[in-house]
Amino acid sequence: MDQKSPQKQSSSPIKMSINNIDKITYAIKDSWKNQQDENQKLFDQFLQYCKSQYPVFNIKFTCSISGEWLEQPVSFTQCIIDKKHLNDCFDLKQILKYLIQNDSNFMQDGYIQCPLCRSKSHFKKDIPLIPNLFFQQLKQQLNDKSKPITYYLSTQTLIPFYPGFLGKEQFQYNNQIQQIFSQQQDAQQSFSTIRKIIKGNESFKYFHVCLLGNIRIQIPVRGKQCRHLECYDFLYLHWYMQQRDQKQLKCLLLGCQEIINLNELQLDSELYEIGLKSFNFSSDFIFDPQSSTLLDTYSITNYDPQIAAYKKLVPTTTENMNYIKSIYDLTDRIYSSTRNQELTDKFYEHPLNGDLNVIKDQSTNCKVEIPCRCIRCDKVNVCDLRFMSCILNQVQHPENRNGVKTYSVSCPLCNNPFSPKKRHRDQSVHEQVYVDTKMLNFITTIKNFNYLNKEKYQLFLQKKLYPSLRFEELESPIQELDQFNLKLRCLITNQKLRNPIRGIYCHHPEAFDENSLTDLCSTGQLDLNLAQCPLCQQSIHKLTHDNTLKELLGQLQGDFDEVQVFPKLKLIKQLK
Ligand SMILES: [Zn+2]
Ligand SMILES: [Zn+2]
Ligand SMILES: [Zn+2]
Ligand SMILES: [Zn+2]
Predict the structure, then answer these.
(1) Element (H or E) spanning 80, and its range?
(2) Which of residues 427, 461, 495 is at a domain's end?
(3) pLDDT tens track for 296-318
(4) By residue range, what is the domain housing residue 123?
(5) What residues are neighbours of ligand 1 (ion), with CB under 5 Å?
(6) pLDDT digits (tens, 9 = 90+) for 472-519
(7) Ligand 4 centre and the CA of 483: distance in Å?
(8) Burial tier of 132 (Cβ tally within 10 Å: 0-12, 13-18, 19+)
(9) What is the ipTM of this complex?
(10) Mind naming one GO cellular-component term on file for this protein (predicted)?
(11) Which ligand minimizes its atom distance to the CA of 432?
């Protein structure tokens, strides 16, 4: 497949050159108009054949010859007839460019050869490329978002790859995934039904984030009886329960007392579809009463602090919706790439250099939400992927520069230059950057920490850092009582009760001690998501401080084991 000199192009059976590629593209597309039924039949037969051969496979939505995104997926007719490479196809323009550059290799004596499988087709005038209807239909289901997916042929289900730490785990659960998608849907469990009951027709914000794992949901499920919009991610639930050898947990949503049982999960297919069609990196939605649908906040935004920060560096950057959309498309594709995990693992084989800067990035002054760096960076520093995408876009499309000379074509972190892709063997710009999936997990799962520093990050990497206690401050339940006796011991640790806290569902005066509970959680000995109050058996994933009791305890002079409390009189007496 050597690059041939331009002189040899004259041997081509048809006159093709890079200059008239748009014309050829148009002619090819035009020739498809009368073959739609025929083509559909070919693909139906292809899929039927593959059902038993390849029941599950992965699709990347990149051109198999250039590695660029698939705008118009095409295949050689002969490959489809011969039932070759169902999960590989070409982008129309990319394959034409490639054939022109290498024509004597693939076009000889009125034959053309597929560069992938070498199957030969005879041709006279039009190149025998047909639209790949299979890829085209999948792209429609994803609303043209080119995220890699796993496809289950028997149930015709597609699941986007999980970015971050669930990425590789995903394939363990193929059976469970097919099961939940083939299961009968409960009409009471659809987004519209619940939305009408709870929210009526008002506009509201909706976060497509797992109640348990804080990650963006790909497969939204709830407990059998749950009647709230918030969901769990199917795979995260399975993964989490498997780690702990559990089959069920109490629903974590405040006010919902249902049991989440792995065998009785209910899929919300409406929310699943909405998730498919929106950006993978985004979980923020807004309900629009007019269209009665959830809108991806990113798809309607015309202001983004990361893009605005870039605009400050390159003042003539157009900030219209088209520009923002192209930046988000690039962001989403890099975010969804399967290479992120590999490159992250490789990066952490070496000791960490540099500082953690996720709280405030130097060049943008913004918090980093999607941490990324270039493949040449050797320091732990990151910048936000949306900001990085602005730079990459500029590298590949210098025409967007609008005459400004001082635009950045190098990595803002290590200053190594990026290079645009000019020939098919060049590395694409999106391959020169990756998302640090470990740091992404750190940012999303350890949300309730006040500040994130390098020391905490290192503990996290060693799996020694656990989420701190979560609080929601409520009135103290003892205020209603006239008097009660209380042992000054933590219900869970049996340590001295100094800073009394309880689960938000507890209605008894007995309490836990904050410091000893913090110790227990920070060493990973207690998982508050699963723990129950030993006295009333309620979930204690969220806690509340009892300041009324704390003040009364402060009145005590000396060390006691049991007291008598009169909350209304603000009085406390020692018993033992
Ligand atoms: Zn082929
Ligand atoms: Zn629930
Ligand atoms: Zn770099
Ligand atoms: Zn309790």
Answers:
(1) helix 77-81
(2) 461
(3) 999 888 888 998 888 887 776 66
(4) 6-141
(5) 79, 84, 114, 116-117
(6) 889 999 988 999 999 999 998 888 898 999 999 999 999 999 988 887
(7) 18
(8) buried
(9) 0.77
(10) chromatin
(11) 3
